[in-house]
Design brief:
Blueprint lengths: L4 E4 L14 E4 L4 E3 L2 E10 L10 H4 L5 E9 L2 H24 L6 H19 L4 E12 L2 H17 L3 E4 L4 H8 L11 E4 H6 L21 E6 L5 E4 L9 E4 L6 H13 L2 E4 L5 E4 L1 E6 L5 H6 L3 E4 L15 E2 L5 E4 L2 H17 L5 H17 L16 H13 L3 H14 L19 E5 L5 H19 L8 E5 L3 H4 L2 H13 L5 E7 L2 H6 L1 H8 L3 E5 L3 H11 L3 H9 L4 E6 L2 E7 L3 H7 L3 H10 L1 H11 L10 H4 L16 E3 L4
Parallel strand pairs: 11-20, 11-21, 14-18, 14-19, 15-18, 19-20
Antiparallel strand pairs: 1-2, 2-3, 3-4, 4-6, 4-7, 5-6, 6-8, 9-10, 9-23, 12-13, 16-17, 17-24, 21-22, 22-23
This protein binds adenosine-5'-triphosphate and magnesium ion.
InterPro entries: P-loop_NTPase, P-loop_TraG, T4SS_component
Protein name: TraG P-loop domain-containing protein
């Protein structure tokens, strides 16, 4: 080349010198920097529309390529006047065309509309204008390979609808523009609005950021694969602000499948370490299972299966939350009796399926206290280890009061009748049966009559909560409420679930709420509170009827909305705070065997090995036997009576010194 400048910089010692090239020789189309050849481009033409992360193909380009983006805000006054001039030009061309009876020019119309829209947005402060420059520098070891790199880069740019012009005769300025100096001697800038600039932001990735950036090992459990990047989605709910999760999706979207998968995989995990560095605390999971879907899973992993509705399985709502610590001493929260009385109001409201009135509440309150007194349980904590009364005793107390011409009490007694002597008496007909502890405890509600489903769920949650809140046995726990819609229909029960969701974190417990009734959940204040108290939110395929509500509650974009409407079975969005990822749940064949409810698959498994499915189930039905009252207070954590201690209230010692 005719005009070649040759600067030679003597190699300097020291940190600053390390980055200076040994020599720089400038040609018309390229530079020789040290022993490298570089050529630079400025982008002068952009596509009409861009999508988020549209620069990614350039950034992941396999050759050595420097991409530099210069962004300079335009002050709103200048932007407005510039736009006004532009609009005036476009508008006058349009009028000129129409005055001369020419056909209208669609491109001109589109440009005029865009300009008008932009000026409106800028006037409202919805966006701003920026001067945006994009420069590229490609490196090669020699001139021939540089020529190849240049043509490859130009075709890549063409495929992105970018018009990349070589910095001919301005090679040095081009190179300087791509150095991290903030200098733009080429000055090939175009005006962009906020949306277009933000879409160019180069560091977007469809993957979730790692919980611990210092290690590359994934933590948490595997949820499935990432639909955007085909990477894997791991999520550690115990690393979030709270450990709760909600799973929303229409029927058959794969909620139970995902929850079962997560529960199973959580069982493999151990959180925390003891002094010797050994994993100390294995996760324990409790499942409220209205559809009897978790039985096979429980059987195969050695879990416990509690079959409510089968004879001999009883839950007594009157049990006080008496804990037994490792040394066999009994403790209870200071206000255990008072809380239990309040919980019994909830129980009665859920049994009746209606709110109780103020008059009824007053009568009930007195009757509950009297019932406890008759069983020898008073405000003195030392009496709290005595056998708790039963629902039958409360009914009898109410009947006695009713006989003294108290119509409210007589009415309440009559309404309790079906649950004491009538069709639904089995569940309450005796002291709580002891449920064995285990790493997975499944409470199946399917065989409960519909009328008892809600109360069954409530009492199971109460039983579970007694374990979770026992200060003597701390370990990470998961409590799964599948089909929570059932509980949400009753305000008292919903309030109970909400309190549980709020208190769970303090007891190292994560509540999973899965429901297909997204509208019910998001339509009530308590439901919304449960959702907002869940740091992990999973949205699976949604029905068109509720999508607007979901979009509003979770602030979804138009793309996310469309994705949720058309997602396949098992596909959904995992969202936590500002992070969101589209994933598809994925199970190994063995896991699938344990958790699937697909009738066709189940039939195939049964054909292949008739024992595999049925025998497993038979083993899962545990005969719990009639409870021995004395037993249920002495055998430790297994058999503590139920409690409503949501908070870590101070524990009082119940044993006489
Ligand atoms: N990721 C998946 N891979 C393979 N099969 C799946 C997947 N997710 C769900 N399924 C199958 O889809 C069917 C429905 O799933 P699932 O029972 O989890 O639905 P659901 O959302 O809980 O529905 P419902 O609200 O009615 O309980 C089941 O047969 C299950 O085995
Ligand atoms: Mg389900």
């Amino acid at each position: 080349m005719a005009r070649t400048t040759h600067h030679t910089t003597p190699a300097r010692s020291g940190a600053a010198g390390a980055f200076t090239p040994d020599s720089l020789s400038v040609s018309a189309r390229h530079l020789e920097v040290g022993n490298e050849f570089v050529a630079s481009f400025g982008v002068t033409g952009y596509p009409q529309e861009v999508y988020p992360g549209w620069l990614a193909p350039l950034l992941t380009y396999p050759a050595r390529l420097d991409v530099s983006v210069h962004v300079q805000p335009v002050d709103p006054a200048t932007a407005a006047s510039g736009l006004r001039k532009q609009r005036a030009k476009l508008e006058s061309s349009r009028r000129h065309n129409s005055r001369h009876d020419r056909l209208d020019d669609p491109e001109l119309d589109a440009a005029a509309e865009d300009a008008a829209d932009l000026s409106r947005r800028i006037a409202r402060g919805d966006g701003r204008l920026f001067r945006f420059g994009l420069y590229l520098t490609v490196h090669a070891p020699d001139e021939t390979s540089l020529a190849e790199e240049v043509s490859a880069l130009r075709s890549l740019c063409a495929s992105l609808l970018l018009d990349a012009k070589p910095a001919t005769y301005r090679a040095l300025q081009g190179w300087v523009s791509t150095l991290p100096l903030g200098l733009d001697p080429l000055g090939l800038k175009r005006t962009f609005d906020t949306a277009a600039v933000s879409a160019a932001y180069p560091f977007t990735s469809p993957d979730l950021p790692p919980t611990d950036p210092t290690t590359s090992a994934p933590s948490g459990v595997l949820y499935g694969y990432n639909i955007g990047s085909s990477g894997l989605v791991h999520w550690d709910r115990f690393a979030c602000d709270n450990y709760n999760s909600v799973v929303l999706g229409r029927s058959g979207a794969g909620k139970s499948y995902l929850v079962k998968l997560e529960t199973l995989r959580s069982l493999y995990r151990a959180l925390g370490h003891d002094e010797d560095g050994w994993a100390a605390d294995e996760v324990q999971a409790f499942v409220v299972d209205p559809e009897d879907e978790y039985a096979r899973l429980a059987a195969q992993v050695g879990g416990t299966y509690v079959h409510l509705g089968a004879g001999g399985v009883r839950l007594n709502p009157f049990d006080l939350p008496v804990h037994t610590d490792a040394r066999g001493r009994h403790t209870a929260p200071q206000d255990a009796l008072k809380r239990r009385s309040l919980f019994l109001h909830t129980v009665v409201a859920v049994l009746f399926g209606a709110e109780i009135t103020a008059a009824e509440r007053a009568v009930l309150d007195t009757a509950i206290t009297t019932t406890y007194h008759r069983a020898g349980i008073t405000d003195d904590p030392r009496t709290w280890t005595r056998p708790a009364p039963l629902l039958r005793d409360l009914r009898d107390t109410l009947t006695t009061t009713g006989d003294n011409s108290d119509t409210v009490a007589a009415d309440l007694a009559a309404r309790l009748h079906p649950f004491v002597d009538g069709a639904f008496a089995d569940l309450f007909d005796g002291p709580t049966t002891a449920t064995p502890d285990g790493h997975l405890v499944v409470f199946s509600l399917r065989d409960l009559p519909d009328e008892l489903r809600a109360i069954g769920t409530l009492l199971v949650l109460d039983t579970v909560w007694r374990r979770v809140s026992n200060p003597a046995y701390r370990r990470p726990r998961l409590v799964v409420v599948d089909e929570a819609g059932l509980l949400m229909q009753q305000p008292e029960a919903a309030r109970f679930l909400f309190r549980l969701a709020k208190a769970a974190r303090k007891h190292w417990c994560g509540l999973t709420t899965a429901t297909q009734d997204a509208a019910d959940l998001l339509g009530s204040d308590l439901g919304k509170a449960i959702v907002s108290n869940a740091a992990t939110q999973v949205l699976l395929r949604q029905a068109p009827q509720v999508i607007d509500q979901i979009c509003e509650a979770f602030n979804l974009s138009a793309g996310e909305r469309q994705y949720l409407l058309s997602a396949d079975r098992g596909q959904g969005l995992l969202s936590s705070g500002t992070q969101r990822v589209a994933f598809e749940s994925l199970a190994s064949p063995t896991e699938n065997f344990l958790i699937t409810t697909d009738p066709a698959e189940l039939a195939r498994f049964a054909d292949d090995d008739p024992d595999a499915t049925d025998h497993g189930l038979a083993g899962a039905y545990i005969d719990l036997g009639p409870a021995d009252t004395a037993d249920s207070f002495d055998v430790g954590a297994d058999a503590e009576p139920a409690g409503d201690g949501f908070d870590d209230a101070g524990q009082v010692d119940l044993d006489p010194a």
